[in-house]
Amino acid sequence: MSAAVPVAANAPLGRGFARLWTSAIASNLADGIGRTAVPLIATTLTRDPALIAGVSAVTFLPWLFFGIPAGMLLDRVDRRIAMAVANSLRFAVATALALLITTDTLTIWLLYVCVLAFGLGETVFDNATTTVVPALVTRDQLDRANGRMQSAEITIQNFIATPVAGFLFAAAIALPIWLTGAGFLVAGLLALSIPAAAAHTHRAGEGGADAPARPPLAAVVRYLWDHRFLRWMIVLTSITASALAFAQGSVVLLLLQTFHVPAALIGVVTAAIGVGALVGALLSPRFVARLGRGRVMFWAILVSGVGILGVGLTANVAIAIAAYAIGAFGVAVWNVPWGAIRQAIIPGAMLGRALGIVRTIGWGLTPIATVLGGFVARIDLRLPFVIGGGLVVVLTLIASRLILSASVQEPAAEPIPEGQPS
User: Fold this and answer.
1) In contact, 66 and 86? CB cutoff 8 Å
2) Per-residue model confidence (pLDDT) at position 158
3) Cα distance between residue 374 and residue 56, in whole Å
């Protein structure tokens, strides 16, 4: 039987976390507007499902090539400045994209370039927000802090940004991109207000003169490989993430062509789906406190697969949206304990690089899977959901013992760097 995780402390998460949360909200607003507007812009340039899926694929491509370097960077520099610079880059790209749209010179290939640059900044900003959390809250607050971050992301992106983006797109194609750029700029400036405790690598209470030296990258790789739970969970999450990406790469065409949703209402549909994700993020910490991380993670990923599978098996738009919301609920519930357990068991001195490696492996196959899903969608736009959702269900059942063991994982001691006496 899985051991339950102790109830998180009820103490406030603190002003430092509040400032990080505020910066993340501004960035999520920009992300939400951009992620709704960009696929819609792509549909004005092409109706080929493979090319539309390519937009999503390019979004994840920077994680394959820059995920690890971004983690190395964040273990060496002031993370607040890194966040500000990353979002300044995304602001500049949004401005360029808006000008291309305004001057009617945008092509699908130039859109790919802009999306690639957006993703480059995302590898730094998103990795930084994850690595900063353990420096601002205590260990027993991690699930609650991650739940707060996740619920804010879902609320902003799904219930504010995406509906607004759909209506703005209908009014003027470039308008949502201008607002995306403004959101990135504000988020970058807000990141500079985060307390100095978040600037560097060690968790709160672990810094100072006696803090352990930063281990080399080879030691980080060896740590992840030698940790049996992390090693196999990275493999599992990489495959399931690819399966979900395979399913969803052409979702905008599914909504427009199969379910005949008007372009202006795409954001509204996304908001309806986001209800499931929001509920999942809000309830996940409570589920973890009551049932333990292992049980929660198992049922969450199983539910996500069933929901995605359901989208592909129905011809009714209301049922499809409900099934999609159930899948989003499962993913959101999963993300909270999976994020918390990585923050808890990976030593602080290597957290940035370790998460960079995890995301590089986890999202490295995503661009390929997304494009493959786009080609399959040429046969039937619902078929990728059937294949992707079914694969997630099968993998979850096969890996049930591994997932359930999440409840008994303990924080690891800081590793001894190479050349240091034990």
Assistant:
1) no
2) 65
3) 10
For tokens 């002031």, the residue is 78
Q: How far is CA 138 from CA 156, 206, 262, 284, in A?
A: 26, 11, 46, 18
What does the DSSP 8-state code read for residue 159?
Answer: I
Q: What is the pLDDT of residue 355?
A: 78
Q: Whose CA is closest to 413, among 354, 353, 348, 352? A: 348
Helices (H), ranges, 292-365: 293-313, 317-345, 351-364
What are the percentages of helix, strand and coil residues in the chain, rounded to 5?
80, 0, 20
Ramachandran region, residue 204 (left: φ > 0; alpha: ψ -120 to 50; beta: rest):
beta
Regions of the chain with pLDDT less than 50: 1-9, 202-211, 413-422
Q: Which amino acid is at 38?
A: V
How far separated are the first and last CA of the chain, in Å rounded?
36
* Pairwise CA distance, residues 116 & 367, whole Å: 11
In whole angstroms, give the CA distance from residue 222 to residue 207: 23
Show me where the domains of the chain are located: 15-203+216-408
Mean pLDDT of the chain: 82
Helices (DSSP H) in 192-316: which residue ranges?
217-226, 228-248, 251-253, 266-291, 293-313
CA 70 – CA 78 distance, rounded (Å):
13
Q: Are 314 and 381 in contact (CB under 8 A)?
A: no
Q: CB neighbours of 421 closer than 8 A, spacing ≥ 6?
A: none
Nearest to 39, CA basis, from 181, 245, 249: 249
- Among 113, 141, 142, 136, residue whose Cα is nearest residue 23: 136
Q: Which CATH number fits domain 15-203+216-408: 1.20.1250.20, 1.10.150.120, 3.40.50.2300, 1.10.357.10?
A: 1.20.1250.20
Contact 246, 373 (CB under 8 A): yes
**Quick check: 356 and 350 in contact, CB under 8 A?**
no
- What is the phi-psi region of residue 205: left when phi exceeds 0, alpha when psi lies from -120 to 50, beta otherwise? left
Instruction: Please give the Cα distance from 420 to 410 (Å, whole number).
Output: 24
Closest residue by Cα to residue 133 from 121, 147, 123, 120: 147
Rounded to whole angstroms, the Cα distance separating 353 from 219 reads: 11
Q: How many CB atoms lie within 10 A of CB 394?
A: 12
Spatial CA neighbour of 315 closest among 400, 362, 382, 240:
382
Nearest alpha-carbon partner for 328 in 386, 267, 275: 275
Residues 146-159 pLDDT 10s: 777 877 777 777 66
